[in-house]
Amino acid sequence: MDQDIFSGLSPIQKEIVMCTEGPVLVLAGAGSGKTRVLTHRIAHLVQNLRVPGYNILAITFTNKATNEMVERLEKMLGPDNSVWVYTFHKFCSIILRKHAEKIGFKAGFSIYDDDDSKKLFKRIFKNQGIDYLTEDEVRNEISNAKQKGLTAERYTASIDGINNPEKADLFRKYQEGLLQANAMDYDDLLVNAFELLNNNPDIAEYYKNKFKYIHVDEFQDTNKIQNDITKLIAEKWKNLFVVGDDDQCIYKWRGAEIENILCFDQVYKEAKTFKLQENYRSTPNIITSANNLIKNNSERHEKELVAQRNSGVRVEYLNSFNDLQEAQQITSIIYSLKYNNNYQNSDFAILVREAIAGNAIENRIREAGISYRVLGGYKFYERKEILDVLAYLRLVSNPEDNAAFLRVVNYPKRGMGGAAVDFISGISTEKGISLFEAACIAADLDEVKFRAKAQTIEFVELMRKLISKKNTAIECIIRYILELTCFKEELEKGQTKEEAETRYENILFFEKQAKQFQLKNKDSSLDAFIESVTLAPETKEIESEGCITISTVHAVKGLEFPVVFVAACEEGVFPSQQSINKEEVEEERRVMYVAITRAKDRLYVSNANRRFRYGKDEFHYPSRFISEMKADGSRQAFSEFGGRKFEEERISFSDREDDYGYNGSVEKANECVNAIKQIIHAPSVYNESIEDYKTGKRIKHSRYGEGVIILITGEEDDKVATVEFPDLGIKKFVIKNTPMTLL
Q: In terms of residue numbers, what domain contains 476?
């Protein structure tokens, strides 16, 4: 037995790795080394138990997790280990492409993203003349149905379908539109894969036999259809190894069912359950706050993280008068930690529950000249110029892709406007064929019947030339598209030179990515490249090093940072105003738990008494989560700004009924929030000129002792010094009113 497989594992990790037979549930807390356990278990199966790699399946939720696992396995087993490591959607796509004809599709089917799906719905609504339902409402209803494993037929027969016959009809028409375009949306990949396996016993038997050992990461995030697929393919060998943390289930809003992990040992009576509770990421003070918070949830397995690091600094709680002061406090602390503790921009993350809550902070960070990136904004593959080139590639790969056709038929402009497209669309509807096929027919019509005949002939010939290049190198196809369509010239219209150049550079970067894809992947076909791009929804903007991260909590799940600020922690914001019942509040508490466990060294949790949201300046109580997570290893950090001291008493929210519909009680002694205390007018006792106070200078304050100036803002008599005190942290003073002297 190769003992190197077990080197570096803790006793509990080794025990889990060696438990290979039967169903296994691993409850892996944040930062507990679950990926290490997963990869070492697979390596143990291959190297020590001689299980062929192709008999092992590992399913993840993100491309990032997939790539990380693949890299680790390659280091342990070599690059040709043949283990199947894929996301749920990619795994289902592989099966579907191999057996597409069984469900009425062709192997080269397109995968529709949200934008494609919206456009198809828009066409359906227009054709049906519907104005009493919204497209988003119906799209969400259909997506929710698919996540529960419902096809259009089963939805029609369900209570929801019977009560909403219009939606059921739109569901059917939407699926017909997808089939006509030889396309599936993200949800279809899962539903169609399950239908394929469930309705074709021979195909199902093949995959049941093939995968003797099945691993599922982030099991708490599985929805019903994903769980059904997992159960089906694990039916024969029952060697199902699932890893997850019910305390980190934060995707209920997109179908995740926490019951899958909570009830695993009830579904699989013989299951063995292990708890990975050692946290290797965060300091004990951060972990104490996390434990104190999450123990307030009842919908969970009983467990408690145990920090493996030294104690570190205390958790800081920051209270501000309003969101502008909160932004200033956070910016000042970042300056201080960079100046005094040698942190880099990339070490910082500012996390918020909703993107709008980060606006004031982003604005202040930008004003301070600090480089930053926002996660959850436009991703690289969502840029218009990339989507345009990608649409051409999609139409080359699958000429029946109607969404791709509509995107490129008149881009760059070639005189095929709305009337021409409507004419072609009419032929498509009448004959039940794709838009490109309809365009080919229109190109042969008399000019009297179809005025855009010349332009249509030009477009059809262009696409036929491109389609003939399908099997050449992808970067060559992209270059060919740019040359034949005058793409660069189109980019320059209505743009500044700099904007046009930036967008063209993005396309060149995309071309470079295509080349790298073909060098790195065994399947380097155009179809495989398009799928890799389409199934990479979490791929972010081209990331720049040396940037602070400003992000929603959901966008950083799985990431970690030395310093984390969790901002806007107020009732109605975090927890969200939409969280009314107990289950919803528990989900919000899990989101907060995920936020604070991203922190490695330092954690700051802040709230503002007043916040500008949706055009209104609103008062907010501090989040109940702040009082829940407070412990001996934490402290209240008061802010002092220009002589004003803002101190807020903590509130118990168990019984009070407030403006947001929360049940809660405020302790009688703390009936309301003491938001602003008396302005402190401190006499000036120094003789130096205000101009002598500069960043980096040491000062002595009559009350707080010695500190270092880390930032000077304002002009003349209104100059404000931000000072870092070794034991007290950050404080701000209007220089002319403050009892301090230079050292």
A: 380-535
